[in-house]
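Supplementary Note 3. Input sequence used for the single-chain structure prediction.
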Amino acid sequence: MNIVIIGASHAGIALADNLRKDGYQDKITIIEKLNIIPVEKPPLSKKFLDDDFSEENIQLRKNNWFKLNSIELLLNKKVLEIDKDINSIKLETKETIHYDFLVIATGAKANFLPDNLVSVENQSTLRNIYDIKKIIKLLIGKKHITIVGGGYIGLELASSLKKGNYEVSVIEMSDRILERVASKQLSQFFTELHQDNGVNIFCNDKLQEVIAKDNKFYVKTKFNDFETDLVLVGIGVSPEIQLAQKIGIDCEKGILVDENYKTSCENIFSIGDCALNKNEYGIIIESIHHAQFSASRVSSFILGKPKPVFENPWFWSDQFNIKFQSVGIYKPNSITIHRQGKREGSHSWWSFINNELKCVEAVNDVQAFTIAKMIFERNIFISQEQIKNKALNLKQLIQ
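The predicted structure, written as discrete structure tokens, is reproduced below.
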């Protein structure tokens, strides 16, 4: 039997690891279009200016791991098409590989600004090690960096650059940074954090034009005009679903999967950032946790083991001196309650819809995050009144 995984992503590597640990002894083939041993993605935006940052230090697995676990890793190989009728895939090199189970773990690609705003060659996005190596080279001799997009990647880049003594501006078209994924209170906290550290934050400001001239960029927005040395773009990603679409697998924004991460096509699964588990999550989850969780579901299904119980997604981000952690999915129109943590500078925000806890966001508050995770895991009912009670010890919620 051969299990073929398209994409040496966090999800793809986690699946191969789970299969081996759970006793699967037959063939595993991982096909990766990049010509590198896969690396962890969080350090790309969080640590790329650190003295000890290197490709080798952030590899997901060392080359020897693949050999020891008898996993065939095919680098620099692009999959052209899937033939679901004969369970095979065709590579750009004209090779054909048979599969018994196929797992699409292709992840997502960075979005670019429209070419009429700024030419593609003048946009630097961040998705892989090649991107950050390019950015590091472009930073040489530069002083002022403009980041388009106020999501987590953009803010982590801003934090890293500011700590590297660059002048940084962030342009966000929405009313607030992190609008799609975070509470208004958390957005305000991070806005103030960045501004206090010297980052210029321009919200509700639409980019109108970027002109490249004399190794500079002239940026024109709805409300501002300024000169910058480099433009970085962090306006989200688009799931890589084209291979699935070509053979008629049901897709929406991502590849539709059931609770076992099976697609609409027999023996084909999808995991990680390209998979849309609509019944349990409702949205595409872009996180390391979901990559690992979706991989565990597929491994268990293929090997006939009990299905891992549902887990609410959790996430983290490091910016300046702040450790941010969240669990659950923030919903618009939530009622959000702030709690001061026990330690100075620690906070948590608890968001409810109709008295149902949906998300907890914690800043430098490991206790609140850990307790919130346990609340979700145990399906404990928590009321707004309990969280509003400042005298309440959060530990009481899980006893």
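The two ends are 47 Å apart (CA to CA). The chain has three domains: 2-109+238-302, 112-233, 321-398.
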